[in-house]
Amino acid sequence: GVFTRRYTQGAVWESTVKQEAAAEATWLEVAQEVFDYFEERTPESRVSRRECTIRWSYAAADHALGARHAALLVEHLEKVLVSAPVEMVWESTFVEVRPYGTSMSLGLLQLLDADCAARAEEGGRESTEEGSGGATKGGGTPKG
């Protein structure tokens, strides 16, 4: 997954993975079995698993065999993970399965959205504080 952290003191790392996708991780076990099957049948390929993603890499394998097995792997994964909250990435030397929302671009987008929302909230508070010096509830000046 992708983790982000604001550039402030004491900020904590936050996952960009939707909580429901992380909680529904049964897909990861299903994908692991399929990936292991292809790893056993493709010499020099390997499976790597992280907290929220799993990848089958065939960069060191025979290119033709790896590409053929990658096509079969993707075809099989599309069937067994059809209702899982995941996306598949098939590049030239690997196949990866990850929950929706774990790409770096989506992580950056979430971080920027949160930052814009925080700035808008701060701006709203500042204008309220600045405008409250003697103003009435209706926004006019007090009569007197």
TrEMBL record:
Signal peptide range in chain numbering: none
GO cellular component: alpha,alpha-trehalose-phosphate synthase complex (UDP-forming); cytosol
BP terms from Gene Ontology: trehalose biosynthetic process
Region spans: Disordered: 120-144
GO molecular function: alpha,alpha-trehalose-phosphate synthase (UDP-forming) activity; trehalose-phosphatase activity
Biased amino acid composition, Gly residues: 131-144
Name of the protein in its database record: Uncharacterized protein
Classification of source organism: Eukaryota, Haptista, Haptophyta, Prymnesiophyceae, Phaeocystales
